[in-house]
Amino acid sequence: MAEEDSGASCHVYQVVVLKEGYSHCLENGDQVANGTISLVLGPHNIMVDTGNPWDGDDIIKGLSKHGLTPSNIDYVIATHGHVDHIGNLNLFKQATHIVGFDICNGDKYATHPFKDGSNYEIDEYVSVIPTPGHTHSDVSVIVKSTKLGTVVIAGDLFECMDDLKDPSIWQEVSENIELQEANRKKVLKIADVIIPGHGKMFQVTETKTQNT
Ligand SMILES: [Zn+2]
Question: What is the three-state SS of the chain?
């Protein structure tokens, strides 16, 4: 019992999916899609992706379940600039915003060399790493020390777990397939669990077994 308790307290961060993303095609060829909205709780409270512009009420409700309001969020990270990932940035006026390779607070922009492959460390457990390919300035968020191990919130670097078996799913919406492929491999090596942009979170070990 005591051992279990001390084990639980070792996890510095918790990752919560506030709203799971999805994507499917309609018969007329149009698409229905929304991006996953995640909340990282710990020494820094962090939102990763904010859904589409109609998701504001769901975000506020989701935060309140954890006793939070938007003003309690320290960082808002948008994995890339597509509308289904950036729809509610302006709920978070106290936060530092990282949108793709841009880092800003109010009208002040920090320079960080994401384009040279440099990671941005929020603290010793959370870092924002450049993972371009889907767009030329995608980032992913690595969260260590969760009860699930190392979680990578990857935006559309991974559309969904099925895109491991069917690469056309991510390649059709990729701006640079070669670069994205390399960054996917990099993240698969780091992650125990991946939260993709448009589907359920998945264990990396599961997918490795399926692919061999
Ligand atoms: Zn996208």
Answer: CHHHHHHHHCCCCEEEEEECCEEEECCCCCEEEECCEEEEECCCCEEECCCCCCCHHHHHHHHHCCCCCHHHCCEEEECCCCHHHHCCHHHCCCCEEEECCEEEECCEEECCCHHHCCCEECCCCEEEEECCCCCCCCEEEEEEEECCEEEEEEECCCCCHHHHCCCHHHHCCCCCHHHHHHHHHHHHHHCCEEEECCCCCEEHHHHHHHHC
pLDDT the model gives residue 42: 98
CA 80 to ligand 1 centroid distance, Å: 7
- pTM tops 0.90, yes or no: yes
Closest to 80 (Cα-Cα) out of 159, 22, 136, 38: 136
Ligand 1: distance of its center to the CA of 141 in Å? 15
Distance 189 CA to ligand 1 centre (A): 22
Looking at this protein, which amino acid is placed at residue 190?
I
Rounded to the nearest whole angstrom, what is the distance from the C-alpha of residue 95 to the centroid of ligand 1?
22
Report the pLDDT value the prediction gives residue 206, as an integer from 0 to 100. 55
Q: Is CATH 3.60.15.10 correct for 2-211? A: yes
Calculate how far, in angstroms, residue 10's C-alpha sits from the geometric centre of ligand 1: 34
State the average pLDDT for the chain. Answer: 93
Q: Taking the domains of the chain in order of start, what are their residue ranges? A: 2-211
